[in-house]
Amino acid sequence: MSFYIAGTGSVLPEKVVSNDDLAQFLDTSDEWIFTRTGIRRRHVLTGERLDDLAVAAAEQALSDAGVKGEEVDLILCATMRGDFYTPSLACTVGGAIGSHAPAFDVNAACVGVLYCMEIADSFIAAGKAETVLIVSAEAMSKLVDWTDRASCVLFGDGAGAMVVRKGEGRLSGVLRSDPSFAIHMPNLEGINSPYNQVPQEKLAMVMDGGEVYKFAVNAMGHRIEEACAAAGIAPADVDWYLPHQANVRIIDASLKKYRIPKERVLLNISECGNMSATSVMVLLDQYAKKGTFRRGDKLLFVAFGGGLTSGAVVSVWNRD
Amino acid sequence: MTTLEKLKEILSECKGEDLDITPETTFEELDFDSLDKVDIVMQIEEAYDISLGDNMQLSTVGELIAKIDEAVAAKG
C-alpha cells in the first residue's frame, strides 16, 4: 500500500515577464531564448511573499482533496530557499492551515517534489502518516544574477501543492544523486562573523551549460527506464509524462529514443520557464484542472537538478 | 560505414536536412548552437561507445573524425 494523489493546487505571481521585456535590459532576443529553451515568458514575484503563494497553493490542494488542515499527518516542502531559513516554509504553511503535524523543507533542487513524494511514501509505508501535504515554492528570481543573460532568462517563480493519501496509486519511485558543482549557488553573502575566513561570493546561480545538458539527458533517460522497470511497465505504457521543465530541448532529447507521441509529454515551460522543484507540481495541477487525466492513467514524473540530483516516480491517477 | 559517413548521418539528423560535409568543413559553417554541439558529442559517444570528455571544442569535421578514431583505437 502506498499513496494516491488526492488533490492539487498551484499559484503563480501576477507579474508576467516576456522575452521581449528581458531584451529591454539584456543583450538577448525572443528568438534566441525561444529556440534554445522553449521559453516565451515567466511569472516573477514583485510584492508577493513566497510563503503567501505556498499557503494559497496548499489551501487549493486541501480543498481539492476534501481534507482539513488538522487531518494532515506530515507537511513536506520542496524549496531551495524560502522567505526565511527558519521557520521553514513547511512550518509556515502548517501554521496557516492550522496543522501541528511534523513539517520540514527538502532541498533537492529541481527534483525536490519527487524526493518529497518518496519521503511521503516511506512515512505511509511505515504507518507514520496517512495524509501528507507536499508543497513546493521557489523564488528563482531572487536567486539568479539578472545581469547574466545565459541564466536569468531560464527561470520563473511559482508555488504548487499536492495532497497524497494512503491508497493505491504510486507504482514506483527512483532517486539518485551524482554529486557535482555543475549547478551551484553560494550562500555566504551577508555573513558578518569576525572569524569567517572564507571569501564571500555573490548569491547567484552558476551553471555549466554543456555538462548540465549532458547530465540531464542521460539522467532523465535512465530514471525513466528504472522507474518503469520497477513499476513493471514499458516507457510506451506511460499515459502522461510530466518532465521537469528546464529546457524543451532537454525534454525532447531525453524522450527521443522511446518515441513517445508529443501530445503525451506535458509542458508549461513556454509560459512559466523553469520554476525548479515547483515546475512538475504546477504542471500536474494545470493539467489536472484541464481534466487531462482519466482514472487509471499512468503518470510518470521525471526530473533532474542541482546536486546533481535526479529521480522519477510512476503513479496511477486514482480520481474521477 | 566510415567515420565520415557516420558523422554525416548524425549531423544531418541534428540539422534536419541532408548535409554535404567533408573533413575540411568547419563547425562555424555548419552553424550549430551550443546545445546541438553537446547533443552531437553525446550521439557520437553512444554510437561508438567512447568518451570524448566534457567541453570539447569542435573546429573542423576532420579534427572531430581524428578524435573519434583515436578514442576508438584507445578502446582497443
Characteristics of this structure?
heterodimer, A: alpha/beta, Peroxisomal Thiolase, Chain A, domain 1, 2 domains, 5-stranded mixed β-sheet, 4-stranded mixed β-sheet, 13 strands, B: 76 residues, mainly alpha, Non-ribosomal Peptide Synthetase Peptidyl Carrier Protein, Chain A, 4 helices
Overall description:
The complex is a heterodimer of chains A (320) and B (76). Chain A has 320 residues and is α/β, with parallel strands linked by helices. Chain A has 2 domains: 2-168, Thiolase/Chalcone synthase (Peroxisomal Thiolase, Chain A, domain 1), CATH 3.40.47.10; 173-316, Peroxisomal Thiolase, Chain A, domain 1. Helices cover 31% and strands 24% of the residues of chain A. A 5-stranded mixed β-sheet of chain A has the order 1-7-6-4-5, sandwiched between helices. In chain A, a hairpin with a 3-residue loop joins β12 (298-305) and β13. In chain A, α3 (50-65) packs across α4 and α6 (209-231) packs across α7 (248-255). The longest helix of chain A has 23 residues, at 209-231. Chain A starts with a strand and ends with a strand. The model of chain A has no long low-confidence stretch (mean pLDDT 94). Chain B has 76 residues and is mostly helical. Chain B has a single domain, classed as ACP-like (Non-ribosomal Peptide Synthetase Peptidyl Carrier Protein, Chain A), CATH 1.10.1200.10. Helices cover 62% and strands 0% of the residues of chain B. The two termini of chain B are 18 Å apart. The A-B interface holds A 35-36, 208-211, 213-214, 217-218, 247, 249, 253 and B 33-35, 37-39, 41-42, 54-55.
